[in-house]
Amino acid sequence: MLLLECPYCGVKAEETELTAGGEAHLKRFGPGSSGEEFEAYMFARKNPKGVHFERWRHAYGCGKWFLAARCTATLEVFGTYPAQTTEPPADLVEKIKAKRPDWKGTK
Question: What 3-state class would DSSP assign to 104?
Fold first, then answer.
């Protein structure tokens, strides 16, 4: 079972109290984008084995969306941070690199 800490209210919640929202840090395409760009945004998602950045909502708590870094193979949670953050915080990236030296980054 996953245990994630909401960065807004500070509550450590089990995944049953949260709602998964898919991959984090997606580039959104709107008016003026090509059909291929819009299709890729709507349907193409990464499904890595290893460290992954995801969106979560504290559904049975404060109701806010936040982002989390976790390993899809081991379910290890590296940390959470506010949804308005455009890229993973440097301290979280360093924590991941320290535990997973073979990690290649978010791209």
Answer: coil
